[in-house]
Amino acid sequence: MPRMVGGLHDEDFVFLTIVAIGVSLALQWIEPAAIGATLLLVWRLFFKPPFDTKQYRLPPKAPFGLIETIQNITTKQIITFFLRVHQKVNCNVALLNFPVPKCNYTVLVVDADLTRDILNDKSTTKAEGIVKTFERVTDGESQFFSNNGPRFYHARKAIAPAFSNSQINRMNGVTREKTEEWIQLRLEPMASNGEPIDIIHEMVELTLTIIMDAAFEYTLTKEERENLLTSLDITLREFIFSNPIKTTFGFLFPSVLRARRKAKELMALANNIIRAYRKNPNPTPGTVIDTIVRNPNYRNDNERAADIIVLIIGGHETSAASLAFFLRELAKNPSEQYILQKQLREMNEEERKDSELLRMYIRESTRLWPLSLPGPFRQVGRDFVVKSNDPSERDIMIPKGSAVFMPIICLFQNEAIFEDHERFVPSRWECPTEDMKKAWMPFGLGNRNCIGQSLATCELQSILSRLCANYNFEVVEEGSEDFSLILHPVGIRLKATKI
């Protein structure tokens, strides 16, 4: 593990020390840029657009300064920080001291109804001031994920048929086939030998194999697989919610330069996938890669490649993390594991995939470990008014153009909505309350919801029904959690025993 010096990796610290003299010689250039950046930041913080304070008031301000806010929002402490803000202001909306480019204000929302209203509103868009940073993962190339307008809509419309019911059924068949191969080649030998399983590593390998075959009809070589996973890890950690100083002066940091090289390698792989599809004499019609390559609205193959990288990330990393978190919760709760096993073993294979009890277990695991910690994250296209509970107080307004964090994990950890919220209680979903139903939106809502949610749901049901009906899991090492693009488990080791 690299040593940290003043918040920097030691290699960065040494490098900056070496170039300090050279940087000082460039002050004639840097000083005007620094002054300009400072003036812009001051303007964004203190000279907001006019706001009518007679009828409405702004949300209460979070009692945390700019530096502390940035330090928390750009690390895995983000959720603890949001919970602290919510408690301090004693209100479901709060102003954050976190300037976002092209946004008037930055607001935290911890209210299910308001979150739903914002997400479903047609004027709501992705906050490009934040999501544009994701384009560094694809070497600066435009993506449908990080854009609004035509770039988003043409790609989304073209890809949507690849997630139709018929295509989901086809991809679910691939899921079953690849799961059986993994069980025979990997799980069975480890279970027979009593060998602890690095469950997140295994689930990443499995889900990556599934998405590459089912969506892109591409088989990764061992070298490509290793390079892909390494490149994704490096670029996501370096570029997503990165320190603004490293973002601005990235050319001074070896870790940033390394991540930029890895982004180019990701794009090269995606272009190889496109070329392989075009050489395929009998491609399967209607697949994800088929819809992307045949879409004439892309400017060039680099735009196609960027969308492929986004879909690979969304298609394997989230599923792998969800599977690992689920199996850890099951192993930690043997009585719940027994209840699920008993029902699944009384069903045939087709019935297991549609098990309502399994859906409840998946839902509860997702509630405890939602993957998108800071989000959804949007920019509002109109004013939103929040009624005040106090008749003597004016109503609160979230002004048009504001950036809005809506962390659903804050709803999932709300004791008023989910009693004993820290416990794994799948039965709570047997008769969910209206508040529970409102809070449940793991895939987002509106026109920017997760395009692959049907596939993700079927994939989890298919894999877990097979594993939970035939294996018992025990915790060897509980591991921990980390955060880059999503919340993901680290170091979980389980022991599997065939029933």
What does this structure look like?
With about 500 residues, this protein is an alpha+beta fold. The chain has helices spanning about 10-25, 25-45, 65-75, 80-90, 110-120, 130, 150-160, 165-195, 200-215, 220-240, 245-250, 255-280, 290-295, 300-330, 335-345, 350-355, 355-370, 410, 435-440, 455-470, and strands at about 5, 10, 55, 95, 105-110, 125, 195-200, 375-380, 385, 395-400, 405, 470-475, 480-485, 485-490, 495-499. The chain has two domains: about 1-45; about 60-499, Cytochrome p450, CATH 1.10.630. The protein contains 20 helices and 15 strands. It has a five-stranded mixed β-sheet, with helices on both faces. Strands 3-10-9 form a three-stranded mixed β-sheet, with no helix packed on it. Strands 7-15-12 form a three-stranded antiparallel β-sheet. Residues about 1-40 have low confidence and may be disordered.
Task: Lay out the secondary structure.
Blueprint: E1 4-5, E2 8-9, H1 10-25, H2 27-46, E3 56-57, H3 66-73, H4 78-89, E4 93-95, E5 106-109, H5 112-120, E6 125-126, H6 128-131, H7 150-159, H8 165-193, E7 197-198, H9 199-216, H10 222-239, H11 244-248, H12 254-279, H13 288-294, H14 301-332, H15 334-345, H16 349-353, H17 356-368, E8 377-379, E9 384-386, E10 395-398, E11 403-405, H18 408-412, H19 434-439, H20 453-470, E12 471-477, E13 480-483, E14 487-490, E15 493-498
Parallel strand pairs: 3-10, 5-11
Antiparallel strand pairs: 1-2, 4-5, 6-8, 7-15, 8-11, 9-10, 12-15, 13-14
